[in-house]
Amino acid sequence: MDHVVHSFISKHQLIRPGQTVLAAVSGGPDSTALLHLLTRLREEFPFHLKAVSVDHGLRGEEAREDLSFVQELADQWGVEFHGTSVDTASYKKATGKGTQEAARELRYRFFEEQMLAHGADVLVMGHHGDDQAETVMMQMARSARPEAVQGMPLRRPFACGEIVRPLLCVSKEQILHYMNDRSLPSRHDPSNDRTDYTRNAFRHRVMPFLKEQNPRIHEHVQAFSERAAEERSYINEQAQKVLEHVHFSENVEKFVQFSKQTFKTFPLALQRTAFHLILNYLYVKQNEDISYLHEEMFMNLLRDEKPNRSLDFPGGLKVIRAYDEITFTFADKKQEQSYHFILQPGASVTLPDGSSMEAEWSWSPEEPDAFTYICEDYHVNLPLIVRSRKPGDRMEVRGMNGSKKVKDIFIDQKIPARIRGTLPVVTDQTGEILWLGGLKKGGSRDGRSSTGPWLRLHYKNKADA
C-alpha cells in the first residue's frame, strides 16, 4: 500500500520537498497509518512533519486517552506533536448546531490555528477511498445536480496552504492490512459504530453491498470524482461567456439582470451552470435550500411564453421576468412607496428601504465616489428635498448639454422598474434636481465659491448596509 500512496502523492504533487506538513491524527487506524506512511516518505525526500490532534470532549476519559496515545505515537516516531481539547457540548448549545457539525467546526478551527502558527503548506487528512465512495453515494442520494456529486476534493485551499487527502487511492481494507502487517497500534471510536449518523448508516448498510458488486469500487469512485472535478472546472470556465452578457449590480441593491433571448442562445449545460453561478453571487455561497427543483423552475420560466412571471426562491430571492428582461433580486415590494423628506445641512434622513441620506458643510470639494455629491453653497436654495421620483422629472446631468428625463436615466442605467420609485431624488427649494442618488449628478462644479464652503451629501444605500 505504501507504494500506491507514494505514487499517488507524486502524481498529484500533494507534498513537495521542504514543505511544512501537518498530519491530522485521531489515533484511529486510518490516521495512524497515514502518520506512519508520512514518516517513511520523509526518508525519501525531506519535509517538516508535525502531528495535530483534537479531543472533542464527547467521550470523557476515553477521548483524553486517544489524545495521549497520538502524542506517544508521535514521540516514538520523532514527530512534533500539537494537541488540544475542546468543549463541543457547550459550543453546540451556544450555536444550535448538531453534534457532528459543532465538532467539525471546532476541529477545523484548531487546524487552521496550527497552520497559521507554523506557516504550514499542507494539512494532510486520512480520508480514504471508501470514505470517498460513501461521500459520493450520499451526494447522489441528496441531489440530482451533477455539480453537487463530486466527492471530497483531493486538494483544496485552507488557511495559509491547502488540505490534501493522499489515502483516497486506497480502501479501508488495504489500510487495515497495512496496520496488521506492521503490528501498528490504533484506537477505536465507538461512535463510528452508530448508524443514527447518516455517514455511518451508508458505511454499514450501503458500502458492503457495493463492495460485493465490485471490490474496487473505491478506485472507480475516485477516478469519477477527479474527472467530475476537471469537467466541472471546464464548464464553469465556459459559463463565463454567458456571464459576460449578465449585468451584476451593487449600485443600489445586489441584483442580476439579463436578456432571456440572449441567455437562451447558449447551450443548455452552460445555462444551468450560469444559473448556479448567479446564485452563488447573490447568496455569497450556494444556499443549501436550493435544489434541482428550483433549477427546473428557472428553466421553465425561460421556456414560458408569458411576458410576465415571477418565482420565489429561498432567502427572499425573487426571479422576475418582464418580457425579455429577467431579474434576480432580494427587493421587497413594500419598498415601492413614495416619500418626501426635508434635509438640512448637519442632518440626515432614513428612507423607506433602509437607505440614508446625510448633508453637511465641507471645506473639501472632493467627490470620492458615486455616492457622494458636492455642490457650491451659492448653487442651492435650502433646505433640500429628498423624495421619490415623479412623472415628468427631468434633470440637467453634469457634463451634458440640456436636460434628460429621469425615466430615461433609469433605462440607460438598467435599473429595474420595480425599484425606481425607491431611489432618492434630491432637489433644492426651487425644485431643481441636484442629484439622482448613486446614479447621476446635476449642477455645476464651476463658479465663484472655489474655496468653499461646499455642501456635501452622502447616500448610504441598502447594498452598503
From TrEMBL:
Catalytic reaction list: cytidine(34) in tRNA(Ile2) + L-lysine + ATP = lysidine(34) in tRNA(Ile2) + AMP + diphosphate + H(+)
Domain Lysidine-tRNA(Ile) synthetase C-terminal as annotated: residue spans: 384-457
Main location: cytoplasm
SMART domains the record matches: TilS_C
Keywords associated with the record: ATP-binding, Cytoplasm, Ligase, Nucleotide-binding, tRNA processing
EC number: 6.3.4.19
Highest taxon of source: Bacteria
Any single GO CC term annotated in Swiss-Prot or TrEMBL for this entry: cytoplasm
Any GO BP: tRNA modification
Gene3D superfamilies reported for this sequence: 3.30.465.60, HUPs, tRNA (Ile)-lysidine synthase
Annotated GO MF terms: ATP binding; tRNA(Ile)-lysidine synthase activity
Pfam family, one: ATP_bind_3
Enzyme class: ligase
Annotated residues for binding of ATP: S26, G27, G28, P29, D30, S31
Keyword presence, Ligase: yes
UniProt comment concerning the protein's domains: The N-terminal region contains the highly conserved SGGXDS motif, predicted to be a P-loop motif involved in ATP binding.
Family: Belongs to the tRNA(Ile)-lysidine synthase family.
NCBIfam families: lysidine_TilS_C, lysidine_TilS_N
Protein name in the entry: tRNA(Ile)-lysidine synthase
Protein species of origin: Halobacillus litoralis
Gene: tilS
